[in-house]
Amino acid sequence: MLAVHASHVTRQVRRLQRTGRVTRVADPDDSRARRIRRTPLGEDAVARLGDAGARGMRPALSHGPPDELRRLAGLLGRMVDVLLTHSADEGQDSDAGTTTTPA
């Protein structure tokens, strides 16, 4: 789904683990696999990234007509729902912060 080599993902996960942003946990459905779960430090990083993105978008959207902004928000919400459903359908855990990876 990410169109990247598994070794690249492994390196990034190891880096996040070394910095305390994720931890590996047992996959209850497959004893050969591990899941990656965000730690509180990882959750904080995600929140800060979201805040930074929102701060960047605010000026760009501040002059938009309110009815168009409401429509845009609705469409983006629908897009997120579709993406989460697609991830769940593809065997991905849509639970925030949890992804299945090989051991």
List keywords for this structure.
single chain; 103 residues; alpha+beta; extended
- Label the overall shape: extended
How much of the sequence lies in strands comes to 15-25%
Number of helices: 3
- Provide the gyration radius in Å: 17 Å
Please trace the helix and strand order, writing H or E for each element: HEEHHE
Mean pLDDT: 83
Report the helical percentage: 55-70%
Distance between the termini: 19 Å
Structural class: alpha+beta
Query: How would a crystallographer describe the biggest sheet?
Result: 3 strands, antiparallel
Number of β-strand runs: 3
Strand order in the sheet with the most strands: 1-2-3
Give structural notes.
The chain has helices spanning 6-18, 40-61, 66-89; strands at 22-26, 33-38, 98-102. The protein is α+β, with helices and mostly antiparallel strands and 103 residues long. A hairpin with a 6-residue loop joins strand 1 (22-26) and strand 2 (33-38). The protein is extended, with a radius of gyration of 17 Å. A 3-stranded antiparallel beta sheet has the order 1-2-3. The model is unreliable at 92-96 (pLDDT under 50).
Fold topology:
Elements: H1 6-18, E1 22-26, E2 33-38, H2 40-61, H3 66-89, E3 98-102
Antiparallel strand pairs: 1-2, 2-3
Structure summary:
The chain is α+β, with helices and mostly antiparallel strands. It contains three helices and three strands.
